Automatic annotation (TrEMBL):
This is ATP-binding cassette domain-containing protein. InterPro entries: AAA+_ATPase, ABC_transporter-like_ATP-bd, ABC_transporter-like_CS, ABC_transporter_ATP-binding, P-loop_NTPase. Keywords: Antibiotic resistance, ATP-binding, Nucleotide-binding, Transport. GO terms for molecular function: ATP binding; ATP hydrolysis activity. GO terms for biological process: response to antibiotic. It is a peripheral membrane protein. GO terms for cellular component: plasma membrane. It comes from Raineyella fluvialis. It is found in: Cell membrane. Residues 8-231 form the ABC transporter domain.
Length: 239
């Protein structure tokens, strides 16, 4: 029997923006049904990488495959979900209206009510998106990423700006996604979040992979994950 293809295969990806090389011959694998965390300093290229994987940005070179298929085709087929860091796009729309609209774009969406309940969206159901707090907008963005029942979901800093209650509820949701066989690729600046959720961690710096491994492998010498991160990434702020 053939092994399942990787959830995500990135080979020799190059992205140049504004005359600079942002992603520099980067290769990465994410296993199916597992949680993969992408860590890196501000400006390392994490969001740029996700934008390439989800068809928002066209790379200058390299290849991206999702579940063995061309990434663009997988995205068009609705097999990929994405929770962006921010989106100003929804503006005046209310959370449940937005979810219903996003659900209508998919052949077999999740039922809206349980998803909204799970993420606490009913608490602010009548508030337009632009008036929601940062953490509430994150919850709506997460629901939007999941409503189409993706096989692979990209979560770009899913708990940024969330209080500890909301963060734990997102962690629990990520555990459930994994248990249901969904592949998750997330970015985070929170080392405890990476350690809690990730089966494998990739540390990226200046658009290149600096290091990868399981938390156990990366911290086998007794250092904390944060110390490993600090030792393998550059402290200079990116422009
Ligand atoms: N459209 C663009 N034109 C020029 N430069 C860009 C563009 N988009 C992103 N960049 C640059 O690419 C670099 C990587 O940005 P990216 O958003 O991918 O970083 P990141 O790792 O997600 O950072 P953070 O942790 O702060 O979210 C930054 O230096 C950014 O200024």
């Amino acid at each position: 029997m053939l092994d399942s293809p990787d959830a995500l295969e990135i080979d020799d990806l190059v992205v140049r923006l504004g005359g600079r090389t942002i992603i520099d011959s980067l290769s990465l694998r994410a296993e199916p049904g597992r949680v993969t965390a992408l860590l890196g300093p501000n400006g390392a290229g994490k969001t740029t990488l996700i934008r390439c994987c989800t068809g928002i940005l066209t790379p200058d070179a390299g290849a991206i495959r999702i579940m063995g298929d061309d990434a663009a085709a997988a995205c068009q087929q609705g097999r990929v979900g994405m929770m962006p860091q921010t989106t100003g796009a929804w503006s005046g729309v209310r959370p449940l209206e937005l979810l219903r609209y996003l659900a209508s774009l998919h052949a077999h969406p999740l039922p809206i009510e349980p998803l909204a309940e799970r993420l606490g969206l009913h608490e602010f159901a009548s508030t337009p998106y632009r008036r929601l707090s940062g953490g509430q907008q994150q919850a709506v963005n997460l629901a939007g990423a999941l409503v189409g029942r993706p096989e692979l979901v990209f979560l770009d800093e899913p708990t940024a700006g969330m209080d500890p209650h909301s963060r734990r509820s997102v962690w629990s949701l990520v555990h459930d996604l994994r248990a249901a066989g969904v592949s998750v690729l997330l970015t985070t600046h929170l080392m405890d979040e990476a350690a809690e959720l990730a089966d494998r961690i990739w540390i990226i710096d200046h658009g290149r992979i600096a290091l990868s491994g399981t938390v156990e492998e990366l911290t086998a010498d007794g250092r904390s994950l944060e110390d490993v991160f600090l030792a393998n990434t550059d402290s200079r702020m990116r422009p």
